[in-house]
Amino acid sequence: MTPVPALRTDGGEAPVRVLLDVDPGHDDALAILVAAGLPGVEIAAITTVGGNQTLEKVTRNALAVATVAGLEGTVVAAGCDRPLVTGAVITDPETHGASGLDGPVLPEPTLPLDPRHGVDVIVETVMAAEPGTLTLVPTGPLTNIATALRREPAIAERVAEVVLMGGGYTKGNVTPAAEFNIYTDPEAAHVVFSAPWRVTMVGLDLTHQALATPDVHERFRAMGTRAGGFVVDMLNFFGPAYRAKQGFDSPPVHDVCALVRAVAPDLVTVRPGHVDVELHGQHTRGMTVTDLQGRQGRDLDHLVATDLDVRRFWDLVTGAVARLP
Fold first, then answer.
1. For the segment 136-148, what is each residue's pLDDT rounded down to a tens digit?
2. Any domain includes 223
3. Where is the Inosine/uridine-preferring nucleoside hydrolase domain positioned along the sequence (predicted)?
4. Domain of 65?
5. 264 is a domain residue
6. What is the CATH number of the domain that holds 105?
7. pLDDT at 6 over 80
8. What's the chain look like in SS3?
9. Is 11 within a domain?
10. How many distinct structural domains can be found in the chain?
11. Residues 244-279: pLDDT tens digits?
């Protein structure tokens, strides 16, 4: 298996600019904290989408986490509250709790909510950036990203890449075939995977390698900082909840993996592939049908994450959080 050359390397003169499209959610929250603590990473904006909990709740969570991270001045905007086509809101309180971020005490946000719609923020931020300098990192349902594409198709030519957490090439976690972010809005995912831009799918096959084991938990606890304690409180809820629902002894931090691929891509091995989203199957709706061999005669126009450098991943993640207050 030959890794595809990395899009960029961590560090360098120019910051890695990311726009985080999130539905916090414990793993989304950790991704925000890591992005805030990594030197050389600039968060261009944070947009929220209904997913792990309702839009109102995940937006409140995003503002609270940005406050913990010290992201004063960062744009945070609320986006779409329901899927593109069905309008059927699916949330995951069993995993993330009634608030979407049960466990830690959420501070009163010190950041204002941007009055613009999140989709407008995505379009305006991409169009204002120099082409090829901004990476979209969606870690929830893809409703905002698909809607932004429909509103301004030119964004597909301007972003450096879309690195998304979603899908999987061998498994699902809502059904045997489908992962939560894709299952909750497969039509939006179809739009995103069909657009003429570079998409890296960081799915369950990769994220199940990023387990917050007891020794990782202890690394956060030993920091003795506000941010470290916040992560410990998140894991104290997230771990047992994930064990009860999914049977994992230690919870995977799915969304952090997409962020890490975007900013330190050498930690995540990828392969070229083509990804289609199943929209009609009785048992497979939301499945990311992944062709890694070109068997369908399609261009292998996407990248599919396959292997994680686990030790370096956790060194990067814990080091970033340790830099926060």
1. 999 999 999 999 9
2. yes
3. 18-315
4. 16-322
5. yes
6. 3.90.245.10
7. no
8. CCCCCCCCCCCCCCCEEEEEEECCCHHHHHHHHHHHHCCCEEEEEEEECCCCCCHHHHHHHHHHHHHHHCCCCCCEEECCCCCCCCCCCCCCHHHHCCCCCCCCCCCCCCCCCCCCCHHHHHHHHHHHCCCCCEEEEECCCCHHHHHHHHHCCCHHHHCCEEEEECCCCCCCCCCCCECHHHHHCHHHHHHHHHCCCCEEEECHHHHCCCECCHHHHHHHHCCCCHHHHHHHHHHHHHHHHHHHHHCCCCCECHHHHHHHHHHCHHHEEEEEEEEEECCCCCCCCCEEEEECCCCCCCCCCEEEEEEECHHHHHHHHHHHHHCCC
9. no
10. 1
11. 999 999 999 999 999 999 999 999 999 999 999 999
Q: What is the value of pTM for the model shown? A: 0.95
Q: What positions carry a catalytic annotation? A: 254
Give percent above pLDDT 90 in the chain.
92
Would the pLDDT of 11 be above 70?
A: no
